[in-house]
Every structure is written in C-alpha cells, then in structure tokens.
Amino acid sequence: MVRIETGMLARSKAGHDQRKLYIIIRAEAEYVWLADGDRRTVDNPKKKKKKHIQIIHRIPEPVKCFLKSNSPLQNEHIKQIIQSESQDRQEDKHV
Description:
The chain is α+β, with helices and mostly antiparallel strands. It has helices at 61-69, 75-93, and strands at 9-12, 21-27, 31-35, 46-49, 53-56. A hairpin with an 8-residue loop joins strand 1 and strand 2.
C-alpha cells in the first residue's frame, strides 16, 4: 500500500485535470482532497480517488513548516509552492 500524507504533492492521472499538480490537504481510505490554491482552494478542494493520482513522495519545505507550526495552509501559499515545483520540474526536463 502506498503511503499518502497531508502535504505531499500529487499529479492527476485521469480526468479533465490530467497532469495537473496539487497538494494533498486530506487523505482517507479511498479518496484524497487536493488543492492548487487557484481553482481548487482549501475551502473547495478536489475530491479524487487515490488510483487516479500519482503521488510524489515528497513534502515541499514550506509545507513542512506550516504543518510543524500547526498553521493552516493558505491558497496563496499553495499557489506559490505549486508554481515553484512546476518550474523545478520543467528545469529537470531540460537538463
């Protein structure tokens, strides 16, 4: 069984949002709730089956800091983190 934690990055494998990057804000037995800080906010997360996402087994440093301090992730923070992660992944592809 794949370990899924709040704060991990996940990429959609299916649906109209295929290949979109999200942050997991909640996980249960069969589903995860995903936020991108833009269309899918913390207040209105995307509910998706676990089999329809690809887990990126890493929690970005800014997310770790929020989780440690018990302060809630804000949409602006999520948006910045995802933009940063997307840029890092684009740079990895061009090497």
